[in-house]
Amino acid sequence: MKQKNSETVFEKYEKLRHVLKQRIYDQKEAVDELVDAFIHMACKPSKCLPKAIFTFLGPASVGKGYLANLTAEIFDEFDSFKHFDMGHYSVLEDEYKLLGQKSSDEFGKGELCTFLKDHPRSVVFFRDIEKADNQLQLALLKMITSDDKESEVDTSQAVFIFSSTLCCDLYHNKNVLNALKQNKLRGQALILDAVSKEEKNIYDIGQAAVVPELITAISGGYIVLFNRLTLDSIVRVGSDALKNLKINYTQTSDIELIYEDFDSLVKLLILSFAPYISIKQISQKLPDILLNKIIRFKQEMETTPEKIVISVSDQARDFLNEHYKKHYEYSHHLFILNEIVELVWKISYEKSFAKITISHAELKKISPQPGIILNENQPVMQFSENGFKDIAGNAPVKESLLQIISVLKKPEHVKKFDIEMPRGMLLCGPEGVGKTIICRAFSKEAGLPYIYVSGNELFDVRYIHKVYQKARLYAPSIVFLDGIDVKGYVDGVLTPIPTEQLILELDSISSDPNEFVFTLATALHRDMVHPDFIVPNRIDIFVEVPEFDREARRFFIEKILEKPNDGKIDVDKVVRYISGMNRYDLDRIGKETSLYAIRNNLDCINEEILIEQINIIKYGHKLDTRHIRNIEEDLKKTACHEAAHAVLSYVLLPHIKIEQVTIAPRHETLGFVSYNDDDFVGNFSKEEIFSNICVMLAGRIAQIRKFGENGIDSGAANDLEQATYLAYMAVASMGMDKEMGYIHIDTLRDNVGHDLFQSGLEKGITRWINDAGQKTETLVEKYWDKIEHISSILVQQEIVDGTELESIMKKTDTNEIAKN
């Protein structure tokens, strides 16, 4: 007899299982978990209150509330259903509204208590329990689990269902799902542990999203996980909604409503809701689209048709066949691709019926409106409108990034070589060289949305967690951490960004291509980034972004030349002058040049104005020569000094191009020779270092050649400093001195602590300086006519351009120089 009753129980719930799977889409595992729980309750009734506690976990709008409602509708254990949106009970005062006041006559008169008194055999659904006030969570838990015999509320026959969207990205991770399959209890414990760590901000104070006592109760109950909905399931919901519209409209209007190619019609209408598609939206708003078209038609036409036909054109049908299954499996993929489907409608009247047709369908790119769609203080999914083609220069960097993108786009190749997908990349480079804009372009080229994080956001561990939560929800996607080497004040102490949360997020990234989150980070220097970030399987791809190359600099100058100018500006010449300048400096050039023209009532800018503004930004404003003592004498000395630097640099270091030689006194110098930074390399030979020392000494030696003892002044102090330093490095660190040999003296000093080889070091530095001085004297004498000629030009016009200098140096006939 017991066996027969047991079979009856199983038969009963198997029938209910079948009904539920027919009525709720894409949630077979959730239905199985629910029905299995009721079988357990039937075979092993609980002695504790309430009858059962369920927790439904999953993304928003996937059927959690619907399944709860169906449970009350089709299970004969229940006769009522009650839904509470816990977002309406977010402050402590709401406890009284829900539960009543225990200390007064109002106890038991709360909404929940009143309902349970009238309907003890019920299913009560608490949507988004994490939104409820924490004290209310405790009071609610106490009420539904209390066995107080004096209580007027009986929960012994009631089932309570809590729902939440917390950590929904985690339990869609394939690694977690595999853990659930292998050991369900351990997998659920992992999920609950993550939920227990979730926090919410109440008046800027962080507190647990779900109180520990409720977590404990949930762990002792039944946990049901919900899937994301596929588009096919959403289509089924849309189909049901349009079928109901057809029945209701025909009955109320006495006009027959006919759908042609119903499947294509529903799919196109659903795609037109992209990128934000939800079950509730489709079931409520999808029929409204057709109803609005019908209403508009009836307003425009005087006659009443016998029937209305809704159809799809061949073009729209072809569009659907090309795009529907090819690109989209889940509705969020439309968001990832930043696309909407735009429909064009055509309305016509044929004899006794009207025809409303989707005549055209096409894809369009959009950008979300963060201020409207997303809440403040929430991570924002963004889309880049500019790709690499919109960025001038940096060809090697772009080529490297395109190779990385090809890896991200072809995960099957990664799998073939049995390695994990790369998780992160660090772009290093000086400030203002375009790292941020390159990262945004990377997102465009990869075809993925990104979340941008910078500044104070990097120090907020809760915000970082939200960022990766959202990125996983819309995976594959990118998290862009701009400036992870930044430091900020935390409790009055200058500290780097916190490491633990970011490391946790990086380590939890799935290797599944459909759930993948790629982290892009930028920094000024790689060695300023916390070493725990830049290890294998975290951020382990490194790309150096150098200073702007010629192509990039030319782009900025051409933008400046869009302003009114005299048409005589030599772009190539100006491009040479701005080597070494970053984006902020180059933006300033255009602004300062324009302001100069406005202040001086000029109609346009010219080359002289442009170059002077460049020099001001690079070297400072010109000084008022009226306030410089012995200005005429000093200018002649400076001209001789700088001319000697320029001539010997041209002779000894011809591969390093000179931009200009000037004696215009500025904030930190009376004159200078500027070079094209593009020509400097990181590795110098012994000959190049020796030649540099000669160039440094040339100014002082030329002044003595012309002015005798009066040529010895403080103007050479910086030159002597640099020359001495180069000599020291050659002898002490680079092993370039014959007498000292291949010894690194600094290493001995740092590790042994004794001043070994001190005498030899001093002699070596003196020897290098003396040898360079002798060679410099010889070269100054050899090229004295050129030095004098350039010096005289400098006295007359303050500046000699690099091109003019090269022309002078190429003229070997002294008489020819004199004629000019």
Automatic annotation (TrEMBL):
Annotated Gene Ontology MF terms?
A: ATP binding; ATP hydrolysis activity; ATP-dependent peptidase activity; metalloendopeptidase activity
> Which part of the chain is the AAA+ ATPase domain?
50-177, 421-549
User: What is one Pfam family matched by this protein?
Assistant: AAA
Could you mention a single GO BP entry for this protein? proteolysis
According to the lineage, what is the superkingdom? Bacteria
Coiled coil start-end: none
Q: What is this protein called?
A: Peptidase, M41 family and AAA ATPase domain-containing
According to its UniProt entry, this protein's organism is Desulfonema limicola
